Amino acid sequence: MSKKIPSALLLNDIHVSKDNIPEFQKNWDEALYICDQYGIEDMIIGGDLWLSRSSQTLSTLMAVRQAIIKATKAGITITVAEGNHCKVDQESVLGYSHLFSEYPHVYVVDDYSIINISNDVELYIMSYFPENGSFVERLKKMVKAELNASVHNILYIHEGINGALSTPNEKELPTNIFSDFDTVLVGHYHNRCIIKGTNIEYIGSSRQHNFGEDEEKGYTIIYDDGSHEFIKNQVNIRYKVLDIKASQINSKLIDKLDDMKADGRYKIKTRISCTSQEAPNIDKQKLLEAGSSKVEIVTEDVEITETTAHSLDKKFDKSGIKQEYTSFCANKGIINIEMGLQYLDKIS
């Protein structure tokens, strides 16, 4: 039996902005390292390379430019699909990544692109278009014009699909429209999951972005036989929630927080369940000093109070407000945050 060959590295939901360039660079460099270790020459970004839909700063554009040049100099061919965060007009084929479409060994997807993985495997990559807009029709046209039913067909998209989230959304796509494909790999929602009873898999974002996301983030390798493998991110900040009772606030917890703080990769939210009588006696400052980034107190009447390491002395600029808004939405399970971000972008 011949050994399967790694053919392409997939990653999505990178969300680079002026506020996270060092984390973006770590993320990108790890992807290049994996390509080098596995002998992979194709790196495919499945949407949301960018965070802001309204505009990009010069520092953000230059960071992406430098990353692309670094990859292509290493012999990597880059294919970029535009995600919903990459476009000003969601129905346009053009997004911010098109600025780099003429760079050597860089291909930016308009509506779709096809990569021949092997003689028996083809990978179809689509940019984002609204679920309740033109996406379905574009998918149908692509299938009719291009699909070869005699090979293993993989679809890589950036969309919301019914069954991926605990709360359904009427604007999400039905699963049955993907029946022509053997495997469907998806970005857009950041946590990894397989939609029950289907061949549809959300492969997870390339790194964690807030406390509302789990730690299973990273990269997906496509092999020449059509199989795929998840490689976990090891280099970026981890967002971890510690759920405890008030009675568990002791030296053991403090030592654990100290150890995680010393690791240097963790931001920690300590969430404490307690009674209304216990709440005033909790020493939040002690937990913050030990290493917690946030302390959240949840009493039996579901009242939530949250104290952060910066809450008493930090003045928020626009980017800080946007980060807090994004974290709030993630914690509440709110998916459609773009309109709110647009309003916040208007802050002078």
Commentary on this structure:
This protein has 348 residues and is an alpha/beta fold. It folds into 2 domains: 227 residues, 4-Layer Sandwich (Purple Acid Phosphatase, chain A, domain 2), CATH 3.60.21.10; 77 residues, no CATH class. It contains 7 helices and 16 strands. The strands form 3 sheets. It has a 6-stranded mixed sheet with strand order 4-3-2-1-11-12, with helices on one face. Strands 5-6-7-8-10-9 form a 6-stranded mixed sheet, with no helix packed on it. Strands 13-14-15-16 form a 4-stranded mixed sheet, with helices on one face. Helix 6 packs antiparallel against helix 7. The radius of gyration is 22 Å and the shape is globular. The N and C termini lie far apart (63 Å). InterPro entries: DNA_Repair-Maintenance_Comp (IPR050535), Metallo-depent_PP-like (IPR029052).
Task: Give a summary of the structure in a few sentences.
The chain has helices at residues 21-38, 58-73, 135-146, 251-263, 284-290, 318-332, 338-345; strands spanning 6-11, 42-46, 77-81, 106-108, 112-118, 121-126, 152-158, 183-187, 193-194, 200-202, 218-223, 228-232, 238-245, 266-274, 292-299, 304-308. The protein has 348 residues and is an alpha/beta fold.
Descriptors:
Purple Acid Phosphatase, chain A, domain 2; 348 residues; six-stranded mixed beta sheet; alpha/beta; 16 strands; single chain; 2 domains
The CATH C-level class name of the largest domain: Alpha Beta
CATH H-level superfamily of the largest domain: Metallo-dependent phosphatases
Give the overall shape, derived from the CA principal axes: globular
The number of distinct β-strands equals 16
